[in-house]
Design brief:
Length: 460
Protein backbone atom coordinates (compact mmCIF):
# COMPACT_ATOMS: atom_id res chain seq x y z
CA UNK A 1 0.00 0.00 0.00
CA UNK A 2 1.40 3.40 -0.95
CA UNK A 3 2.50 5.58 1.97
CA UNK A 4 1.18 8.96 0.76
CA UNK A 5 2.03 10.53 4.12
CA UNK A 6 5.77 9.90 3.79
CA UNK A 7 7.58 13.23 4.36
CA UNK A 8 9.64 12.84 1.18
CA UNK A 9 6.76 12.32 -1.21
CA UNK A 10 6.20 15.97 -2.09
CA UNK A 11 9.96 16.64 -2.37
CA UNK A 12 10.79 13.96 -4.91
CA UNK A 13 10.31 13.48 -8.62
CA UNK A 14 11.29 10.63 -10.89
CA UNK A 15 14.97 10.81 -11.96
CA UNK A 16 14.11 8.90 -15.13
CA UNK A 17 11.13 10.75 -16.63
CA UNK A 18 11.72 13.93 -14.49
CA UNK A 19 7.94 14.50 -14.30
CA UNK A 20 6.31 11.91 -12.09
CA UNK A 21 6.03 12.05 -8.34
CA UNK A 22 7.56 9.19 -6.38
CA UNK A 23 5.67 7.16 -3.81
CA UNK A 24 6.85 4.49 -1.36
CA UNK A 25 5.42 1.01 -1.06
CA UNK A 26 6.70 -2.36 0.16
CA UNK A 27 8.89 -2.80 -2.95
CA UNK A 28 10.57 0.59 -2.71
CA UNK A 29 9.91 3.88 -4.49
CA UNK A 30 8.01 4.03 -7.75
CA UNK A 31 6.87 6.58 -10.31
CA UNK A 32 3.17 6.63 -11.17
CA UNK A 33 3.86 8.45 -14.45
CA UNK A 34 6.42 6.17 -16.14
CA UNK A 35 6.17 3.10 -13.90
CA UNK A 36 9.87 3.09 -12.99
CA UNK A 37 10.89 1.48 -9.72
CA UNK A 38 13.70 2.43 -7.37
CA UNK A 39 14.87 0.06 -4.61
CA UNK A 40 15.87 0.71 -1.03
CA UNK A 41 19.40 -0.69 -0.49
CA UNK A 42 20.81 -0.96 2.99
CA UNK A 43 17.97 1.28 4.26
CA UNK A 44 18.95 3.97 1.71
CA UNK A 45 16.56 4.83 -1.17
CA UNK A 46 18.45 4.34 -4.46
CA UNK A 47 16.98 7.17 -6.51
CA UNK A 48 19.18 7.19 -9.61
CA UNK A 49 18.12 7.11 -13.25
CA UNK A 50 19.16 3.48 -13.85
CA UNK A 51 19.27 1.63 -10.50
CA UNK A 52 20.34 -1.80 -11.86
CA UNK A 53 23.28 -0.31 -13.75
CA UNK A 54 24.29 1.86 -10.81
CA UNK A 55 24.17 -1.00 -8.34
CA UNK A 56 26.07 -3.28 -10.74
CA UNK A 57 28.74 -0.59 -11.05
CA UNK A 58 29.21 -0.22 -7.29
CA UNK A 59 29.12 -3.98 -6.74
CA UNK A 60 31.86 -4.42 -9.32
CA UNK A 61 33.93 -1.66 -7.73
CA UNK A 62 33.46 -3.24 -4.31
CA UNK A 63 34.60 -6.59 -5.67
CA UNK A 64 37.68 -5.00 -7.20
CA UNK A 65 38.43 -3.11 -3.98
CA UNK A 66 38.27 -6.11 -1.64
CA UNK A 67 40.22 -8.23 -4.10
CA UNK A 68 42.85 -5.50 -4.32
CA UNK A 69 43.13 -5.32 -0.54
CA UNK A 70 43.79 -9.05 -0.41
CA UNK A 71 46.23 -8.81 -3.33
CA UNK A 72 48.03 -5.97 -1.50
CA UNK A 73 48.34 -8.17 1.58
CA UNK A 74 49.84 -10.99 -0.48
CA UNK A 75 52.21 -8.58 -2.24
CA UNK A 76 53.40 -7.14 1.08
CA UNK A 77 54.08 -10.65 2.33
CA UNK A 78 56.11 -11.44 -0.80
CA UNK A 79 58.08 -8.23 -0.35
CA UNK A 80 58.73 -9.10 3.28
CA UNK A 81 60.11 -12.48 2.29
CA UNK A 82 62.32 -10.88 -0.39
CA UNK A 83 63.62 -8.18 1.92
CA UNK A 84 64.38 -10.71 4.61
CA UNK A 85 66.34 -12.90 2.19
CA UNK A 86 68.33 -10.15 0.48
CA UNK A 87 69.08 -7.83 3.39
CA UNK A 88 67.82 -8.68 6.84
CA UNK A 89 65.08 -6.17 7.61
CA UNK A 90 64.98 -4.31 10.88
CA UNK A 91 62.46 -5.41 13.45
CA UNK A 92 60.52 -2.19 12.87
CA UNK A 93 60.30 -2.84 9.13
CA UNK A 94 59.11 -6.38 9.69
CA UNK A 95 56.51 -5.20 12.21
CA UNK A 96 55.33 -2.46 9.86
CA UNK A 97 54.90 -4.82 6.92
CA UNK A 98 53.16 -7.46 9.00
CA UNK A 99 50.86 -4.82 10.47
CA UNK A 100 49.96 -3.48 7.02
CA UNK A 101 49.38 -6.92 5.53
CA UNK A 102 47.14 -7.98 8.42
CA UNK A 103 45.23 -4.71 8.19
CA UNK A 104 44.59 -5.09 4.45
CA UNK A 105 43.13 -8.57 4.95
CA UNK A 106 41.01 -7.45 7.90
CA UNK A 107 39.86 -4.31 6.07
CA UNK A 108 38.56 -6.44 3.19
CA UNK A 109 36.45 -8.46 5.62
CA UNK A 110 35.17 -5.36 7.42
CA UNK A 111 34.20 -3.57 4.20
CA UNK A 112 32.42 -6.64 2.85
CA UNK A 113 30.44 -6.92 6.07
CA UNK A 114 29.70 -3.20 6.18
CA UNK A 115 28.60 -3.08 2.52
CA UNK A 116 26.94 -6.49 2.53
CA UNK A 117 23.99 -5.45 0.31
CA UNK A 118 26.51 -4.70 -2.47
CA UNK A 119 28.71 -7.80 -2.21
CA UNK A 120 28.90 -9.78 -5.45
CA UNK A 121 28.60 -13.55 -5.04
CA UNK A 122 31.66 -15.50 -6.12
CA UNK A 123 35.03 -14.22 -7.30
CA UNK A 124 35.52 -11.53 -9.91
CA UNK A 125 36.20 -13.23 -13.21
CA UNK A 126 38.65 -11.91 -15.81
CA UNK A 127 35.73 -10.91 -18.02
CA UNK A 128 34.51 -8.51 -15.31
CA UNK A 129 38.00 -7.10 -15.04
CA UNK A 130 38.04 -6.60 -18.79
CA UNK A 131 34.68 -4.87 -18.82
CA UNK A 132 35.88 -2.59 -16.04
CA UNK A 133 33.74 0.13 -14.47
CA UNK A 134 31.95 3.09 -15.98
CA UNK A 135 32.37 5.75 -13.31
CA UNK A 136 35.41 8.01 -13.41
CA UNK A 137 38.13 7.26 -10.87
CA UNK A 138 37.29 10.35 -8.81
CA UNK A 139 33.93 8.73 -7.99
CA UNK A 140 35.37 5.49 -6.63
CA UNK A 141 34.43 3.99 -3.28
CA UNK A 142 37.67 5.06 -1.60
CA UNK A 143 38.53 8.38 -3.26
CA UNK A 144 37.09 10.24 -0.27
CA UNK A 145 37.76 7.47 2.21
CA UNK A 146 39.96 9.64 4.44
CA UNK A 147 36.93 11.92 4.94
CA UNK A 148 35.35 9.16 7.04
CA UNK A 149 38.13 9.41 9.61
CA UNK A 150 38.26 13.20 9.47
CA UNK A 151 34.50 13.49 9.89
CA UNK A 152 33.96 10.91 12.60
CA UNK A 153 37.24 10.37 14.43
CA UNK A 154 40.02 12.96 14.66
CA UNK A 155 38.83 15.99 12.67
CA UNK A 156 37.08 18.21 15.22
CA UNK A 157 39.14 21.27 14.25
CA UNK A 158 38.37 20.91 10.56
CA UNK A 159 34.73 20.00 11.12
CA UNK A 160 34.20 22.98 13.40
CA UNK A 161 35.87 25.32 10.89
CA UNK A 162 33.54 24.20 8.09
CA UNK A 163 30.46 24.61 10.27
CA UNK A 164 31.66 28.04 11.44
CA UNK A 165 31.80 29.31 7.85
CA UNK A 166 28.30 28.05 7.08
CA UNK A 167 26.87 29.21 10.39
CA UNK A 168 28.20 32.72 9.80
CA UNK A 169 26.04 33.01 6.67
CA UNK A 170 23.07 30.99 7.91
CA UNK A 171 22.75 31.87 11.56
CA UNK A 172 21.28 35.37 11.26
CA UNK A 173 18.95 34.70 8.35
CA UNK A 174 15.59 32.99 8.17
CA UNK A 175 15.14 29.47 9.44
CA UNK A 176 16.71 26.83 7.23
CA UNK A 177 13.40 25.07 6.68
CA UNK A 178 13.56 22.08 4.40
CA UNK A 179 17.25 21.60 3.63
CA UNK A 180 19.10 19.54 1.04
CA UNK A 181 22.79 18.69 1.60
CA UNK A 182 23.89 17.67 -1.89
CA UNK A 183 27.14 15.74 -2.23
CA UNK A 184 27.21 15.24 1.53
CA UNK A 185 30.10 12.76 1.44
CA UNK A 186 30.75 11.13 4.80
CA UNK A 187 28.07 13.38 6.28
CA UNK A 188 29.64 15.32 9.15
CA UNK A 189 28.72 18.82 7.93
CA UNK A 190 25.20 17.56 7.22
CA UNK A 191 25.03 16.12 10.74
CA UNK A 192 26.28 19.34 12.33
CA UNK A 193 23.85 21.48 10.35
CA UNK A 194 20.98 19.17 11.23
CA UNK A 195 21.86 19.09 14.91
CA UNK A 196 23.00 22.66 15.54
CA UNK A 197 21.10 24.79 13.02
CA UNK A 198 17.92 22.68 13.24
CA UNK A 199 16.34 22.66 9.78
CA UNK A 200 12.79 21.38 9.80
CA UNK A 201 13.84 18.49 7.54
CA UNK A 202 17.27 17.47 6.23
CA UNK A 203 17.97 15.46 3.09
CA UNK A 204 21.49 13.99 3.06
CA UNK A 205 22.39 12.95 -0.48
CA UNK A 206 25.47 11.43 -2.14
CA UNK A 207 26.26 8.89 -4.84
CA UNK A 208 28.91 6.88 -2.95
CA UNK A 209 27.46 3.93 -1.00
CA UNK A 210 30.47 3.59 1.32
CA UNK A 211 30.07 7.18 2.47
CA UNK A 212 26.28 6.95 2.63
CA UNK A 213 26.25 3.72 4.61
CA UNK A 214 28.79 5.20 7.04
CA UNK A 215 26.64 8.31 7.46
CA UNK A 216 23.65 6.04 8.10
CA UNK A 217 25.49 4.39 10.99
CA UNK A 218 26.79 7.66 12.41
CA UNK A 219 23.41 9.44 12.33
CA UNK A 220 21.86 6.41 14.04
CA UNK A 221 24.39 6.62 16.88
CA UNK A 222 26.22 3.42 16.00
CA UNK A 223 29.97 2.80 15.95
CA UNK A 224 31.97 1.62 12.96
CA UNK A 225 35.55 0.31 12.98
CA UNK A 226 37.63 0.70 9.83
CA UNK A 227 41.34 1.15 9.17
CA UNK A 228 43.01 4.43 8.39
CA UNK A 229 46.00 4.12 6.04
CA UNK A 230 47.81 7.50 6.32
CA UNK A 231 49.63 8.79 3.23
CA UNK A 232 52.79 9.57 5.21
CA UNK A 233 52.73 7.66 8.51
CA UNK A 234 54.48 9.37 11.40
CA UNK A 235 55.70 6.09 12.88
CA UNK A 236 55.77 2.43 11.78
CA UNK A 237 52.69 1.72 13.91
CA UNK A 238 50.78 4.45 12.04
CA UNK A 239 50.88 2.60 8.72
CA UNK A 240 47.47 1.07 9.52
CA UNK A 241 45.28 2.18 12.41
CA UNK A 242 41.97 0.61 13.33
CA UNK A 243 39.80 3.65 14.04
CA UNK A 244 36.47 3.77 15.82
CA UNK A 245 34.12 6.11 14.00
CA UNK A 246 31.22 7.63 15.92
CA UNK A 247 29.04 10.73 16.10
CA UNK A 248 28.82 12.81 19.28
CA UNK A 249 25.28 11.43 19.69
CA UNK A 250 22.55 9.96 17.56
CA UNK A 251 20.88 12.51 15.32
CA UNK A 252 17.50 13.92 16.16
CA UNK A 253 14.55 12.92 13.99
CA UNK A 254 13.85 14.61 10.69
CA UNK A 255 16.72 13.49 8.45
CA UNK A 256 16.70 11.20 5.40
CA UNK A 257 19.60 9.68 3.45
CA UNK A 258 19.24 9.30 -0.32
CA UNK A 259 21.53 7.85 -2.97
CA UNK A 260 21.34 10.21 -5.95
CA UNK A 261 23.42 11.57 -8.81
CA UNK A 262 23.66 15.36 -8.44
CA UNK A 263 23.25 15.72 -12.21
CA UNK A 264 20.10 13.57 -12.33
CA UNK A 265 18.85 14.33 -8.85
CA UNK A 266 15.30 13.21 -7.94
CA UNK A 267 14.14 16.48 -6.41
CA UNK A 268 11.02 18.42 -7.28
CA UNK A 269 11.00 22.05 -8.34
CA UNK A 270 10.69 24.58 -5.50
CA UNK A 271 11.09 21.79 -2.93
CA UNK A 272 13.67 23.29 -0.59
CA UNK A 273 14.22 26.40 1.49
CA UNK A 274 17.98 25.75 1.63
CA UNK A 275 20.43 23.81 -0.53
CA UNK A 276 23.98 23.23 0.73
CA UNK A 277 26.76 22.04 -1.59
CA UNK A 278 29.94 21.18 0.36
CA UNK A 279 33.10 20.76 -1.75
CA UNK A 280 31.01 19.85 -4.80
CA UNK A 281 30.76 22.47 -7.54
CA UNK A 282 34.31 21.96 -8.84
CA UNK A 283 34.12 18.14 -8.99
CA UNK A 284 30.51 17.56 -10.03
CA UNK A 285 31.43 17.31 -13.72
CA UNK A 286 29.17 20.01 -15.09
CA UNK A 287 29.84 23.68 -15.96
CA UNK A 288 28.82 26.00 -13.14
CA UNK A 289 26.17 27.91 -15.17
CA UNK A 290 24.30 24.66 -15.83
CA UNK A 291 24.71 23.37 -12.30
CA UNK A 292 23.61 26.69 -10.80
CA UNK A 293 20.42 26.45 -12.86
CA UNK A 294 19.80 23.03 -11.29
CA UNK A 295 20.14 24.48 -7.80
CA UNK A 296 17.79 27.32 -8.75
CA UNK A 297 15.18 24.80 -9.89
CA UNK A 298 15.08 23.01 -6.51
CA UNK A 299 14.86 26.15 -4.37
CA UNK A 300 11.71 27.98 -3.41
CA UNK A 301 11.54 31.70 -4.28
CA UNK A 302 13.78 33.41 -1.73
CA UNK A 303 15.47 30.13 -0.82
CA UNK A 304 19.19 30.11 -0.16
CA UNK A 305 22.07 28.29 -1.78
CA UNK A 306 24.97 27.77 0.62
CA UNK A 307 28.13 26.64 -1.13
CA UNK A 308 31.38 25.95 0.71
CA UNK A 309 34.71 24.47 -0.32
CA UNK A 310 37.39 24.95 -2.93
CA UNK A 311 37.13 26.40 -6.43
CA UNK A 312 39.56 23.99 -8.08
CA UNK A 313 38.03 23.69 -11.55
CA UNK A 314 41.33 22.40 -12.98
CA UNK A 315 39.78 19.25 -14.50
CA UNK A 316 37.12 21.16 -16.42
CA UNK A 317 37.34 22.53 -19.95
CA UNK A 318 39.53 25.64 -20.00
CA UNK A 319 36.53 27.95 -20.46
CA UNK A 320 34.92 26.46 -17.35
CA UNK A 321 37.90 26.94 -15.00
CA UNK A 322 36.31 29.92 -13.35
CA UNK A 323 37.84 32.46 -11.02
CA UNK A 324 35.83 33.56 -7.99
CA UNK A 325 34.70 36.75 -9.73
CA UNK A 326 33.48 34.74 -12.73
CA UNK A 327 31.67 32.27 -10.46
CA UNK A 328 29.86 35.07 -8.65
CA UNK A 329 28.69 36.57 -11.93
CA UNK A 330 27.38 33.15 -12.94
CA UNK A 331 25.15 33.13 -9.85
CA UNK A 332 23.46 36.39 -10.84
CA UNK A 333 22.84 35.09 -14.36
CA UNK A 334 21.37 31.91 -12.85
CA UNK A 335 18.69 33.85 -10.97
CA UNK A 336 20.42 34.51 -7.65
CA UNK A 337 20.92 37.80 -5.85
CA UNK A 338 24.55 38.91 -5.40
CA UNK A 339 25.72 36.59 -2.63
CA UNK A 340 27.13 37.16 0.80
CA UNK A 341 30.68 35.86 0.77
CA UNK A 342 33.31 34.55 3.16
CA UNK A 343 36.83 33.28 2.57
CA UNK A 344 38.89 31.39 5.14
CA UNK A 345 42.09 29.37 5.21
CA UNK A 346 41.55 26.15 7.12
CA UNK A 347 43.45 22.94 7.84
CA UNK A 348 42.61 20.12 5.46
CA UNK A 349 42.96 16.39 6.24
CA UNK A 350 45.37 16.91 9.12
CA UNK A 351 45.42 13.38 10.49
CA UNK A 352 47.41 13.05 13.73
CA UNK A 353 48.94 9.87 12.30
CA UNK A 354 50.17 11.44 9.05
CA UNK A 355 52.89 13.89 8.08
CA UNK A 356 50.83 14.90 5.06
CA UNK A 357 48.26 17.68 5.24
CA UNK A 358 47.62 21.07 3.72
CA UNK A 359 45.96 24.41 4.21
CA UNK A 360 43.01 25.20 1.95
CA UNK A 361 41.51 28.60 1.27
CA UNK A 362 37.83 27.92 0.97
CA UNK A 363 34.99 30.05 -0.33
CA UNK A 364 31.56 30.05 1.29
CA UNK A 365 28.64 31.96 -0.16
CA UNK A 366 24.98 32.41 0.58
CA UNK A 367 22.94 33.29 -2.50
CA UNK A 368 19.18 33.89 -2.39
CA UNK A 369 16.97 32.89 -5.29
CA UNK A 370 15.33 36.00 -6.71
CA UNK A 371 14.16 34.72 -10.11
CA UNK A 372 13.19 31.41 -11.66
CA UNK A 373 15.37 30.38 -14.59
CA UNK A 374 14.82 27.67 -17.16
CA UNK A 375 16.04 24.35 -15.78
CA UNK A 376 18.76 22.57 -17.75
CA UNK A 377 17.56 19.90 -20.12
CA UNK A 378 17.71 16.40 -18.64
CA UNK A 379 20.80 14.51 -19.66
CA UNK A 380 19.94 11.94 -22.30
CA UNK A 381 21.74 8.75 -23.21
CA UNK A 382 21.44 7.16 -26.66
CA UNK A 383 18.27 5.11 -27.05
CA UNK A 384 20.30 1.92 -27.58
CA UNK A 385 21.71 2.33 -24.06
CA UNK A 386 18.35 2.87 -22.38
CA UNK A 387 16.43 0.32 -24.47
CA UNK A 388 18.21 -3.03 -24.24
CA UNK A 389 16.28 -4.45 -27.21
CA UNK A 390 17.63 -1.93 -29.75
CA UNK A 391 20.63 -2.74 -31.95
CA UNK A 392 23.91 -1.07 -31.00
CA UNK A 393 25.32 0.99 -33.90
CA UNK A 394 28.88 0.28 -34.97
CA UNK A 395 30.27 3.75 -34.49
CA UNK A 396 33.78 4.85 -35.39
CA UNK A 397 34.83 4.72 -31.74
CA UNK A 398 33.48 1.18 -31.34
CA UNK A 399 35.27 0.14 -34.53
CA UNK A 400 38.53 1.53 -33.16
CA UNK A 401 38.04 -0.27 -29.83
CA UNK A 402 37.23 -3.48 -31.70
CA UNK A 403 40.47 -3.41 -33.68
CA UNK A 404 42.48 -2.51 -30.56
CA UNK A 405 40.89 -5.33 -28.58
CA UNK A 406 41.67 -7.88 -31.32
CA UNK A 407 45.30 -6.79 -31.39
CA UNK A 408 45.56 -6.98 -27.60
CA UNK A 409 43.91 -10.41 -27.55
CA UNK A 410 46.28 -11.67 -30.27
CA UNK A 411 49.37 -10.43 -28.42
CA UNK A 412 48.26 -11.83 -25.07
CA UNK A 413 47.47 -15.18 -26.70
CA UNK A 414 51.07 -15.36 -27.90
CA UNK A 415 52.28 -15.41 -24.29
CA UNK A 416 52.46 -19.12 -23.47
CA UNK A 417 55.41 -19.26 -21.09
CA UNK A 418 57.74 -20.45 -23.86
CA UNK A 419 57.91 -17.73 -26.53
CA UNK A 420 60.42 -14.89 -26.29
CA UNK A 421 59.88 -11.30 -27.42
CA UNK A 422 61.68 -12.20 -30.67
CA UNK A 423 59.39 -15.18 -31.21
CA UNK A 424 56.31 -13.02 -30.72
CA UNK A 425 57.65 -10.30 -33.01
CA UNK A 426 58.29 -12.84 -35.73
CA UNK A 427 54.71 -14.12 -35.55
CA UNK A 428 53.38 -10.57 -35.76
CA UNK A 429 55.41 -9.99 -38.91
CA UNK A 430 54.14 -13.27 -40.39
CA UNK A 431 50.56 -12.10 -39.73
CA UNK A 432 51.41 -8.82 -41.52
CA UNK A 433 50.33 -6.78 -38.55
CA UNK A 434 53.57 -4.78 -38.42
CA UNK A 435 56.77 -4.49 -40.48
CA UNK A 436 59.86 -6.34 -39.26
CA UNK A 437 61.71 -3.19 -38.16
CA UNK A 438 58.85 -2.16 -35.84
CA UNK A 439 57.54 -5.46 -34.43
CA UNK A 440 60.05 -6.11 -31.65
CA UNK A 441 59.79 -2.59 -30.19
CA UNK A 442 55.97 -2.77 -30.36
CA UNK A 443 55.88 -6.10 -28.50
CA UNK A 444 58.17 -4.72 -25.79
CA UNK A 445 56.01 -1.62 -25.38
CA UNK A 446 52.89 -3.72 -25.08
CA UNK A 447 54.39 -6.08 -22.52
CA UNK A 448 55.87 -3.18 -20.57
CA UNK A 449 52.47 -1.51 -20.32
CA UNK A 450 50.95 -4.79 -19.16
CA UNK A 451 53.67 -5.19 -16.54
CA UNK A 452 53.34 -1.58 -15.35
CA UNK A 453 49.56 -1.95 -15.07
CA UNK A 454 50.02 -5.01 -12.85
CA UNK A 455 52.20 -2.94 -10.50
CA UNK A 456 49.75 -0.07 -10.14
CA UNK A 457 47.10 0.25 -7.46
CA UNK A 458 43.87 1.31 -9.06
CA UNK A 459 41.18 3.38 -7.37
CA UNK A 460 37.83 1.68 -6.70
Amino acid sequence: MTDVAHPLTELLCCPRCTRGKLALDSAGWSCATCGSGFPVVGAVPWLVREPPESLAEWRTRLGFLTRQLRDDAARIERELATVSEATPASDRTVQRLVRQSDACRDQAVRIEKFLQPLVLPGVLAPVQRGLGTAMPSEQGLTNYYVNLHRDWCWGDEENDASLTECRALLGNGPALGRTLILGAGAGRLAYDIHMQLEPSLTIVSDINPLLLFAAREMFAGHELQLYEFPIAPRAPADVALLRTLRAPQSARAGYHLIAADALDAPFASNAFDTVVTPWLIDVVGEPLPTFAARINQWLKPGGRWINTGSLAFNRAAFADRLSLDEALSVLVTAGFAPPELREATIAYMRSPASRHSRLETIVTWSASKRAQVDPPAPRRLPAWLTNSTMPVPRTASIEFESVSARVHAFLLALVNGERSVNDMARLIVEQRLLPADAAEAAVKRFLRRTFDASEQRDQY
